[in-house]
Amino acid sequence: KAGVTQTPRYLIKTRGQQVTLSCSPISGHRSVSWYQQTPGQGLQFLFEYFSETQRNKGNFPGRFSGRQFSNSRSEMNVSTLELGDSALYLCASSLMGLSTDTQYFGPGTRLTVL
Amino acid sequence: KNQVEQSPQSLIILEGKNCTLQCNYTVSPFSNLRWYKQDTGRGPVSLTIMTFSENTKSNGRYTATLDADTKQSSLHITASQLSDSASYICVVSGQAGTALIFGKGTTLSVSS
User: What pLDDT, on the 0 to 100 scale, is given for residue B98?
Assistant: First the structure.
């Protein structure tokens, strides 16, 4: 069974630009969640999508948004990039969500904002 | 404020030795607590998930304990191997599977 895939793996952008990251979950998984990981703050939860609906949201500004498609693939968008957005962005998929399901993480997208 | 604190921040042990990592949380209400292992440059991998009613769960050489009364958890690694060198992250979920609160992790280095 193929794992969670994320594209691209590396990305360099400049301040003010916007970026879209993609996540393909494990086949059959309906929940996709997104996380930001930085050396200073560690892992932080961004949001979770289930059946194309945002079900849970972390404490991030509105510049961070996402969506999920009918095939459960998900995209995350960050607008008006800031230097502090440089981070590893991880997505995870699970069958039903954040309750007690095992989350399977992808390898992440490393975003560098210059 | 919902928080998850892990200790120690880093740890160095010799191959074959045991070690215990700690996690204290203030998340309330509580749904479940997870331990993840994250190798450098890779996404986290789930080790254990425990709900309020569970106080111990094992996954091979990894054994997690949970005391919901004191809001403490530990991860015990038996007979450590070089491949155990990684960051170990404790994650707590509020009720009904709401947003996850992450600890900052313990970096474990196993040397030969």
Answer: 62
Phi first, then psi: give them for residue A70, nearest 5 degrees.
-65, -20
Q: What is the pLDDT of residues A69-109, one digit of tens each?
A: 999 999 999 999 999 999 999 999 999 887 778 899 999 99
Taking contacts as CB-CB distances below 8 angstroms, the residues of chain A near B93 are: 98-99
| Portion 7-36 of A in contact with B at CB < 8 A | 33
B96 pLDDT band (50/70/90 cuts)?
low
In order, the DSSP letters of B37-71 are EE-TTS--EEEEEEETT--EEEETTEEEEEETTTT
Whether A60 and chain B come into contact, CB under 8 Å, resolves to no
SS3 A85: helix
Does residue B75 sit at the A interface (CB-CB below 8 Å)?
no
**A90/B89 CB distance under 8 A:** no
Q: Is A100 on the interface with B (CB under 8 A)?
A: yes
**B23: Cα within 13 Å, side-chain hemisphere:** 28
Contact criterion met (CB < 8 Å) for B44 and A43: yes
Closest CA to A26 of A96, A107, A104, A98: A104
Q: Which residues on neighbouring strands pair with residue B50, listed in sequence order?
A: B33
Distance (Å, whole) CA B101 – CA A52 = 23
